[in-house]
Amino acid sequence: MENTFYPPILELFWKLFAAQGINPEKIFKPNCINIKELKISDSRIKTSTVDQLWKDAEELIGNGYFALDSYKYWHPGCLGALGYAWLSSSTLREGFQRLVRYFKVLNSEAGMKIEEINDEVIISYEKQYSVGRSASALSLLMHMCRINYQEHLAPKKVTLWHPEPEDISKYYAYFQCPVEFNTGVDSVIFPVNIVDKELSGGNEQLAKLNDQVLIKYLNTLTQDNLIVRIKSIIVRELPSGNVSNNRVAEELYTSTRSLQRKLKVLGTTFKKVYEECRKDLAEQYVADGKMSLTEISFILGFTEISSFSRSYKRWTGHSPNADRQM
Length: 326
Fold this sequence. Notes:
Blueprint: E1 4-5, H1 8-19, H2 25-28, E2 45-46, H3 47-61, H4 81-87, H5 92-106, E3 112-117, E4 120-125, H6 131-148, E5 157-159, H7 169-175, E6 179-180, E7 187-191, H8 192-195, H9 204-220, H10 225-237, H11 245-251, H12 256-265, H13 270-288, H14 293-299, H15 305-316, H16 320-325
Parallel strand pairs: 5-6
Antiparallel strand pairs: 1-2, 3-4, 4-7, 5-7
């Protein structure tokens, strides 16, 4: 399975790039990323695409340390349930353990590690990112710690894998601690007493509820990324009736022919994915009972309830009325 990335984080990157005075579309569009997809939490983006996105951004902007400003655009929703589980963690250590446990939700290719040596706790990233993305990852981690602990929290030390850049003043200004370069690893180091201090915002019940969401989400990551993205677009466009392989290809910044080829490799077709999507939604809406059959017909893109009923019976062997009564 190819490695994938959690799209809502890219909305943060979009704002970061825009703040540098460049049009983010110049970076996102060539990499086939539509801004609308960034709000779809159950979609996925290839990690190789995200890597290229950062490479293009750093070439356009001319440096990597601009990404230290990433924290300005962070919101817990950027990380979905993991962001809210982090806010509800009782200690920083508990929060770090969640990041390590569920990092695959954010990036299936990489991970994080937590180590304790003597009286220090080291939180590190397992992948060496580009200079800008490295700065962004550490900026966000530090900001999340400060939100949970206190605004002026300073770590004991920060290390970065890459060589020292020309301008290091922003690193010292932001982290407020010794910063070492060319260490081979991106990490933040805290004293044990800070990591284990009880936090006023801790809420075990909320944290566990979000843990359940994360566990369920991890289980879905075995699905193919392309099909998940196609279904997300279909769901969004169904009520308008504007669903076609041409429309979906346009949303994915690819050609209809290329989309057909990719689906063939996966052993399916656009028509099959479209029908499967409508069938799943129809069964869910009928069982839920909150909408009338007329409303369901409209949402699924049918012009008449009779057409919906025929399709539903073909999919399930029962009429929607019969299933609803059961």
